[in-house]
Design a protein that fits this description.
- It contains 12 helices and 19 strands.
- It is an alpha/beta fold and about 425 residues long.
- Strands 1, 2, 13, 14, 15, 16, 17, 18 and 19 form a 9-stranded mixed sheet that branches. It has an 8-stranded parallel sheet with strand order 5-4-3-12-11-9-7-6.
- Helix 8 packs across helix 9 and helix 9 runs parallel beside helix 10.
- The longest helix has 18 residues.
- The chain binds pyridoxal-5'-phosphate.
- Pyridoxal-5'-phosphate binds next to helix 11.
- It is an enzyme of class 4 (lyase).
- Homodimer. Only the dimer is catalytically active, as the active sites are constructed of residues from both monomers.
- Pathway: Amine and polyamine biosynthesis; putrescine biosynthesis via L-ornithine pathway; putrescine from L-ornithine: step 1/1.
C-alpha cells in the first residue's frame, strides 16, 4: 500500500479540485483538541461548525487493514463519507472504491483513480448510470435479479458480474441489508442460468453481513454460502468464478480483529480449493468513523432549575442524521473557549444534566438528552468524536443549515 505525502491535499496528490482546506497540520496523537482550538481562534468571527479529518488515523487504519487482512483488497464504500480529502488520502494509500451511483463514480474518477479500481456495487442501477459506467470503463458490478441482467445486457454487456447473495445471518447488524438485497438460495441457480442465456460473464459472488455488524461469525456462514454458489456455477458448466466480495460490516477496534479471525478461518475452510481467487471487500465505516471529529458552536442556552439546555449549529437534519438513519449513539465534550479559556476542556468542573438541541425549528432536532456537561455559554463549542460514518453524507440543508457547507480541515497525528 502507498503513503500520504507530507504536503497532502487531494488536489496536489491526484490532480483533483474541490478540497477546501489545503494545508496539513501535524498534531500529536491525541492533539485533535489542540488543533481544533487553533482553528477556533482563527474562526473567531464565523463560529461555523467544522470537521477535522485526521490523516494519521486514516493511515493507521490502512496499516491495520493491511497487517490483519493482507489477502483482502479494500474497496472503500464512498456512500459512507464522500469527503474529497478522505477519498484522496485513501486513493494515495492504495485503496480501491465501491461506488453506488454515477456521481460517486465521477467523484472517484476525478481524483485520477483508474476505473479498474472501482466496483459499481449497487445491485439495482439506473439504466443511464449503467450506460455511464460502460462509457468510462467501470467494468465490475453486482446483481441479484433477472431484471437487472436485462439492463446490463442492454447497456454494458461486457461488464463482469458478481451475484449478490443474502447473507444467512445479519441479525447482529446495526443496519441489516438482507430485506432489500441479495438473492435467496433457491434463486441462485435460475439467476446464473439467466446470465448464461444472456451471455453475461458472472465472475464471482458478493454479500454484505450488514453495516455495524456485531456477530463476526456471520462472515463464516456467508462465506460458506458463497462457496455453494461457486459450486453451483461449476455444475452449470460456467467459467470458473474468481472473485469473492465479502462486503462491509467492519468497525475499527476489537470487532475488526474478531471479524478478521472469522474471515481467515472461513477462507481456509471453504476456499483453499479455489486457485487464483481474489478476495475483495467494501469497508466504509472502518475507514471513516474515527477519522473525523466535529466541532459545533453553542448558539443558544436556557436554564431550567438544574437542567441546562443548549442549541448548537448542527443537528439531526445535518451531521447528526446518523442518530436516525444509522441508529448511532453519539457523545460530546466541551471546548469552553469563551467561558473558560484557561481550562477549555473543563477538567474538574461541576457538571449538569444537559440537553443538546440542533438548530432547526423541529423538536425532533434533539441531539442528546441527560448528557453531563459543565456550565457552558453561548459561543463555547461542543466537540463530537467518531463522526465520519454516515453523517455529512446524508445531511440536508433544512431550515437553511447546510451540512454540505461544513468545511473539513486536515490534520495528521502520526506522519512526522
Ligand atoms: N457495500 C455496500 C453494498 C453497502 O450497502 C454498504 C453499506 O450500506 C457498504 C458496502 C459499507 O458497509 P459498512 O457500512 O459496513 O462499512
Amino acid at each position: 500500500m502507498g503513503s500520504i505525502p507530507k504536503n497532502f491535499h487531494a488536489g496536489v496528490v491526484l490532480g483533483a479540485p474541490g478540497v477546501r482546506e489545503k494545508s496539513v497540520t501535524t498534531i500529536s496523537k491525541n492533539g485533535v483538541t489542540d488543533f481544533m482550538l487553533s482553528i477556533i481562534s482563527e474562526k473567531e468571527e464565523t463560529k461555523e461548525p467544522f470537521y477535522v479529518l485526521d490523516l494519521g488515523e486514516v493511515t493507521a487504519l490502512m496499516d491495520k487493514w493491511t497487517l490483519t487482512l493482507p489477502m483482502v483488497r479494500p474497496f472503500y464504500a464512498v456512500k459512507c463519507n464522500p469527503d474529497p480529502a478522505l477519498l484522496g488520502s485513501l486513493a494515495a494509500l492504495g485503496s480501491n472504491f465501491d461506488c453506488a451511483s454515477r456521481a460517486e463514480i465521477e467523484s472517484v474518477l476525478s481524483l485520477g483513480v483508474s476505473p479498474n479500481r472501482i466496483i459499481y456495487a449497487n445491485p439495482c442501477k439506473q439504466e443511464s448510470h449503467i450506460k455511464y459506467a460502460a462509457s468510462v470503463g467501470v467494468n465490475l458490478t453486482t446483481f441479484d435479479a433477472e431484471e437487472e441482467l436485462d439492463k446490463i445486457r442492454k447497456w454494458h454487456p461486457k461488464c463482469a458480474l458478481l451475484i449478490r447473495i443474502k447473507a444467512p445471518d445479519d441479525s447482529g447488524a446495526r443496519c441489516p441489508l438482507g430485506t432489500k438485497y441479495g438473492s435467496l438460495p433457491e434463486e441462485v441457480t435460475p439467476l446464473l442460468q439467466a446470465a448464461q442465456t444472456a451471455r453475461l460473464n458472472v465472475v464471482g459472488v458478493s454479500f454484505h453481513i450488514g453495516s455495524g455488524a456485531t456477530h463476526s461469525q456471520a462472515y463464516k456462514g456467508a462465506i460458506a454460502s458463497a462457496k455453494s454458489v461457486f459450486d453451483a456455477a461449476g455444475r452449470l458448466g460456467m467459467s470458473r468464478m474468481k472473485i469473492l466480495n465479502i462486503g462491509g460490516g467492519f468497525t475499527a477496534g476489537s470487532q475488526f480483529d474478531e471479524a478478521a479471525t472469522a474471515i481467515k478461518s472461513a477462507l481456509q475452510a471453504y476456499f483453499t480449493s479455489e486457485p487464483g481467487l481474489t478476495v475483495i471487500s467494501e469497508p466504509g465505516r472502518f475507514f471513516s468513523d474515527s477519522a473525523f471529529t466535529l466541532a459545533t458552536t453553542i448558539i443558544g442556552k436556557r436554564v431550567r432549575g438544574d437542567l441546562r439546555e443548549y442549541w448548537i449549529n448542527d443537528g439531526i437534519y445535518g451531521s447528526m442524521n446518523c442518530i436516525l438513519y444509522d441508529h448511532a449513539t453519539i457523545t460530546c465534550t466541551p471546548l469552553a473557549c469563551n467561558s473558560n479559556r484557561a481550562n477549555p476542556t473543563c477538567k474538574g468542573f461541576r457538571t449538569y444534566s444537559s440537553t443538546v438541541f440542533g438548530p432547526t425549528c423541529d423538536a425532533l432536532d434533539t441531539v442528546l438528552t441527560g448528557h453531563q456537561l459543565p456550565e457552558l455559554q453561548v459561543n463555547d463549542w461542543l466537540v463530537f468524536p467518531n463522526m465520519g460514518a454516515y453523517t455529512v453524507a446524508a445531511g440536508s440543508s433544512f431550515n437553511g443549515f447546510n451540512t454540505a457547507a461544513i468545511l473539513t480541515h486536515l490534520a495528521s497525528s502520526n506522519m512526522n
